[in-house]
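Onboarding guide, step 5: your first structure request.
Type a short instruction followed by the sequence, for example:

Predict the 3D structure of this protein.
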Amino acid sequence: MALLEVRDLSVAFGEIEALRGVSFTIDEGAVVALLGSNGAGKSTTLRAISGLVAPRAGSILFDGKPIAGLSPRTIVKLGVAHVPEGRRVFPGLTVRENIMLGASNGNASSAAIRREADAMFDVFPGIKPFASMLGWTLSGGQQQMVAVARGLMAKPRLLLLDEPSLGLAPVVVQGVFQIIGEIHKRGTTVLLVEQNAHMALKVADWGYVLETGRLALGGDPATLWSDERIRDAYLGGGQVKAST
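The system replies with structure tokens like these:
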């Protein structure tokens, strides 16, 4: 069953068309990778889904209900959380305080929110020892874990992840993708924007490729990697050995 349906989505910034007639679906419980080169429209797609940019045309349905045009706060409350590129850990707050900011229920007590944050430390044990430290003092990989934990505090049905491995060392990237696998096991649906196509397709159930604002193709990971032309044109196949 489709949890998210994007239909003929178009987004423009002035005269620049960032997305043109993009359509795709995501089944509940799936991990879907959205791939493509820089400027293809991947981040814009996530921002349109989460309400940060307004579509010029098309529709976005979440659990069968239209959400295009709703405020980001409303969309979060419906069950969509967005972890943007760049981690954006608040420097003046501790790790725990950063995570607690992700709670979407304004009626919850501080004690309840603290308990939920403690539960996140069980999911992300690598940052638990640093709970009382300022977020900016952590490594890039640890800050990424804080950002994802903050997104999960909203208890989303759909988690939008924008370039979670950007700027991280290869050994740290492995850990980040292991966490994405754990999130999948928890039953959360994930839409993953990622430059590292090789790693993204290892954790994904399905992949879509954007090219200059249009959906170029879609398929299961094995199919996408099996076509050498597709790897070379869209997925950096000349640099990374395909995995089957």
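Each response can be followed by summary notes, for example: Residues 2-86+157-234 form a domain with the Rossmann fold fold (CATH 3.40.50.300).
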